[in-house]
Amino acid sequence: MHEITRTTTRTDRGPAGTTARRRSGGPPGRHDSRRPGGTTVRRPDSAPGSATAPHPGTRTATRRAAAVSRTAALAAVQRERDRLPHYWFAHRLLLALSGQRPVHTLLGHALPDAYDQLIALAPCAPLRPATGRAAPVVRRCGEYRPRHGVIEAFARIASGDRLSALAFRLELGADARWRCAAVDLGPLAPPAPLVT
Predict the structure, then answer these.
(1) Residues 154, 88, 114, 127: is their CA dihedral positive or negative?
(2) Of 65, 115, 133, 165, which is the most buried if we count CB atoms within 10 A?
(3) How far, in Å, CA of 159 to CA of 139, rounded?
(4) Which helix (H) or strand (E) holds 182?
(5) Cα(47)–Cα(41) distance, rounded to whole angstroms?
(6) pTM score > 0.85 for this model?
(7) Contact 179/170 with Cβ under 8 angstroms?
(8) pLDDT per position as a tens digit, 21-37
(9) Is 9 helix (H, G, I), strand (E, B) or coil?
(10) Can you tell me the distance from the alpha carbon of 84 to that of 172, in angstroms, rounded to the nearest whole number?
(11) What is the pLDDT of residues 87-130, one digit of tens each?
């Protein structure tokens, strides 16, 4: 008769009483007694090179974080842009010439001739939006520097589907501050009627 030798797996117990790893060096697996020979089956999460599928909520959170970071980056770019002299003045002139702020907010930021121009233009509020239109915004503002200390700027003002042009000149004073030296709106459209 042939002898049937039953192979048993020997485990060593360490000083702390924990089962040591098998000599194969791999991660510990689950022993499946239903398989012949007591095959060790590795868990899917412990298999080498396995990648778990991301949770749907993780994808949404990742997209949301990416959108927030893009929005924050755009806001940072816009803040930097608005610090430029021609953009800063374009916004302030727009507020004064659309009736959103009084002209005297530009006192100290305009040379006497330009300030007189603004005093004459402000009552008409030439950049005031028509009834029902959105508040005007500076869509774009370009600059040309004919020489050091002079900026000739041109802005595109949008209010809904209506576009207006605003040109102005800035000069750098001895105190290293920019001031508006001239304003030009081109041919003016009739002012929008006031809502009472």
Answers:
(1) positive
(2) 115
(3) 9
(4) strand 178-184
(5) 10
(6) no
(7) yes
(8) 445 455 555 555 565 65
(9) coil
(10) 13
(11) 999 999 999 999 999 999 999 999 999 999 999 998 888 998 87
